[in-house]
C-alpha cells in the first residue's frame, strides 16, 4: 500500500532517519514540510477519522511549545486538539503518514513498524 502524503519537519533528524530506514525519497511532491505548509483543520479531523488511534496520539508531548503548559489532554475534545496541533508545527507528532485507509503519526517503534508493514502490503 502506498501513502498519499507524509507530513514531516525538514530539520527533524528523527524523520530523516526514519525515511532513510524505509528507503523513502523526501523530494517527492507528497512529502510536506510542516514548517512550510500546515494541514488544514478539516484534514486533521480526517486523520482522526481514518486512524484507530486516540487523537491525543497526534500530539508531540515533547514539543518545546508545550513546556510549562499544564494541559490535560484527556479532557480535550477533537476540536480543541486540532486547534492545539495547528497552533505550532512542532506540536504535531511526526512524521505523519497518510494512507487511503489509515493515518500513522509519530516516530515510535510501533508506528514505524506499522508504516513498514503498510508499505510492504
TrEMBL record:
Q: Which domain of life is it from?
A: Bacteria
Q: Name one Pfam family in it.
A: ArsC
Recorded hits in SUPFAM superfamilies, A to Z, give:
Thioredoxin-like (SSF52833)
Q: Which InterPro entries match?
A: Arsenate_reductase-like, Thioredoxin-like_sf
**Family indicated by similarity:** Belongs to the ArsC family.
Protein name stated in the entry: Arsenate reductase
Amino acid at each position: 500500500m502506498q501513502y498519499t502524503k507524509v507530513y514531516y519537519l525538514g530539520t527533524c533528524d528523527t524523520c530523516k532517519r526514519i525515511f532513510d530506514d524505509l528507503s523513502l525519497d523526501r523530494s517527492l511532491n507528497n512529502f510536506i514540510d510542516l514548517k512550510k505548509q500546515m494541514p488544514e483543520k478539516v484534514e486533521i479531523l480526517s486523520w482522526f477519522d481514518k486512524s484507530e488511534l486516540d487523537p491525543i496520539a497526534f500530539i508531540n508531548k515533547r514539543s518545546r511549545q508545550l513546556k510549562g503548559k499544564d494541559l490535560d489532554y484527556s479532557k480535550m475534545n477533537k476540536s480543541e486538539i486540532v486547534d492545539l496541533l495547528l497552533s505550532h508545527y512542532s506540536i504535531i507528532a511526526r512524521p505523519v503518514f497518510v494512507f487511503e485507509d489509515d493515518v500513522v503519526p509519530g516516530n515510535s517503534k510501533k508506528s514505524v513498524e506499522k508504516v513498514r508493514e503498510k508499505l510492504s502490503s
